[in-house]
Every structure is written in C-alpha cells, then in structure tokens.
Amino acid sequence: MKPTLIVHGGAWRIAEETHADHIAGTRAAAQAGWHVLCHGGSALDAVEIAVSAMEDDPVFDAGVGSVLNRAGDIEVDAMIMDGRTLALGAVAAVRGIKNPVRLARVIMQDTDHCVLVAEGARRFAEEKGIRLCAAAELTVPREIERFRKLQEVPDYHLSDEFTPDPMDTVGAVAIDQAGNIAAATSTGGVHFKLPGRVGDSPLVGSGAYADNLTGGASATGHGESIMRVLLSKTATDALGRGMGAQAAAEWAIRHMHERVNGYGGLILVDHRGNTGFAYNTPHMAVAWVDARGEIHAQIKG
Ligand code: GLY
C-alpha cells in the first residue's frame, strides 16, 4: 500500500503576518511524518512525530505556544488513535507538558485506560519519564499579551466573529505501507477558557478518529460545536457509506454548520489512502503529501 499523510495547523482567521510561519510549521510537520512513512514506519509513529513537531513550534496553539486560560495557566488536551485495533490514548486539562501527544501514546500503549486527566495524567507522565516543564516554558509573549487584553474585556466570551485569534489546534492523519491508519490531535484549547475546560481534541470521535475499515480524521475549530456532532466519527462514517474523502470532509463540516452553527476544519484519509480536507472558517493551515510524494503546505482561504 502506498502510504500517505495529511496534517493541519488550525482553522479560523489566521493573522496574515503569521501565514508564512503556519506554512513552514505544517510543512515541517508533514516532512517529519512523511520521513517515518517512507522508511517503512507506522502510521502511529508518523502522526505522533508530525503532531509533536507542531507542539514544539510556538506558532501553534498546542504544546509550546498554547493559549492561557482565565487563571493565566496552560492546560492542554491531546489524543492519538490506532485504526488497526481502535486503541486510543488521550489526555485532558494537563499542565506542564510540552508534548501531550507522546503522553497520549504512552497511555494507549502502557495502560488499560483510554483517557487520563489533570494531575493524574501529570503524575503518570512523571512515572513514565516523560519530561514535565514549568508553565513558563510553554508560554509565549503573544499569549501573555492576549491574556492581558482579554482580562480587560468585561464579560468576555468566545464569539464566531473570526477575530484573528488562534484556533491553531494541530493534527495529523496517516496510512502506512501495511494499510494501517492513525490519527492524532493536540491543542491548548480556546483562549481565556475556564480552568478545567476540555475541548473536542481528546474526545474520541470528536477531535480525532481512526478505523482501518473506513479511514481517519482530525478536527480543529470550535470544540463545543465539534463535540456536539462527533465531527471526526461523523466524517469517517460517511467514508464507510462510500463517500469519497473530499466529499465526506465537506459533508461533515456542512453538517456541523447546519446542526449547531459550528465552525472549524477537518482532515481525512480514507482506507484506500485518498485524502481530503474541508473548513468553513476564513482560513485553514494544511499540508499533505501528493501521489508523487511531494509535500504541499498552504493556508487555504
Ligand atoms: N478545537 C480545539 C478546542 O476547542 O479545544
């Protein structure tokens, strides 16, 4: 089977002055994942590495560069899923960790559980020798400035007005030479969220889904909308009904908009290795590998 990979670096209004950084970041992530697949590596390794690369890149709202919550803290969410076995690992509302997708992978592989949250997830990371860090290591000046501005706004709530704020959740979906599909998603969530808020990203079927029988998906955008329609599972179910990857991605985004007036983006790989993506936001950052093995990275919109 010919492997393939698609990654996203968020969908919302992506500020013009950061377009080049988003393109460079998603391209680097796709290159890292593609390198794994080209050397016979697994889809799981490819999506973990691709997502980790974007967690390390301060341009995205994941890992380093994550948004601050109302208490001025960073709490991150992530998940990874194996389409061969439907095994999954996820973390939610966990502090002081640079690569939550790696922790999610260890939870998937080394425990009987699927999801660990908050302090328990942190303690487990420590036990497994996954490096913890101070919040300062994850916090970038852009987010401190945003937090200070939002503190001044009386009665702030996230709107659909597409202000150039980050919704730069990151994700990757891949299929490997053996035909195994994997998906992963990671996020700092939405800015100025309530402490303890968990978004769609670590919720199976919402932020990501992978099943060798149908395909894999990773979502980005407004978590409270994505989780209401199980966006990733909705899209992979559409693949299972015979829809093509591009058509299924577009249909799932349309469905979210029609049912809950939700906004976001989705990447998809079907079990034959066709890719698709769709969004109903002003922009989406996406990178994919074409049939000749060339990587394309773009801000769509
Ligand atoms: N999609 C990311 C979040 O809402 O947390």
Give a quick precis of the structure:
The protein is an alpha+beta fold. Helix content is 33%, strand content 25%.
The biggest sheet, with number of strands, parallel, antiparallel or mixed sense and barrel status, is:
8 strands, mixed
Identify the CATH architecture.
4-Layer Sandwich
The overall pLDDT, averaged over residues, is 95
The count of helical stretches stands at 9
End-to-end C-alpha gap: 32 Å
Topology diagram in text:
Blueprint: E1 4-12, H1 19-38, H2 43-55, E2 76-82, E3 87-94, H3 100-110, E4 115-117, H4 118-127, H5 135-138, H6 141-151, E5 170-175, E6 181-187, E7 208-211, E8 215-221, H7 223-226, H8 231-240, H9 245-260, E9 264-270, E10 275-279, E11 283-289, E12 295-300
Parallel strand pairs: 3-4
Antiparallel strand pairs: 1-5, 1-11, 2-3, 2-6, 5-6, 7-8, 8-9, 9-10, 11-12
Helix pairs in contact: 1-2, 2-3, 8-9
This protein binds glycine.
Residues 169, 187, 189-190, 199-201, 220-223, 226 line the site of glycine.
Characterize the structure shown.
- The chain is an alpha+beta fold and 301 residues long.
- It has one domain: Glutamine Phosphoribosylpyrophosphate, subunit 1, domain 1, CATH 3.60.20.30.
- It has nine helices and twelve strands.
- Strand 2 (76-82) and strand 3 form a beta hairpin.
- The relative contact order is 0.20.
- The model has no long low-confidence stretch (mean pLDDT 95).
- The structure holds glycine.
Q: Which terms summarize this structure?
A:
301 residues; alpha+beta; Glutamine Phosphoribosylpyrophosphate, subunit 1, domain 1; eight-stranded mixed β-sheet; four-stranded antiparallel β-sheet; 9 helices; 25% strand; globular; binds glycine
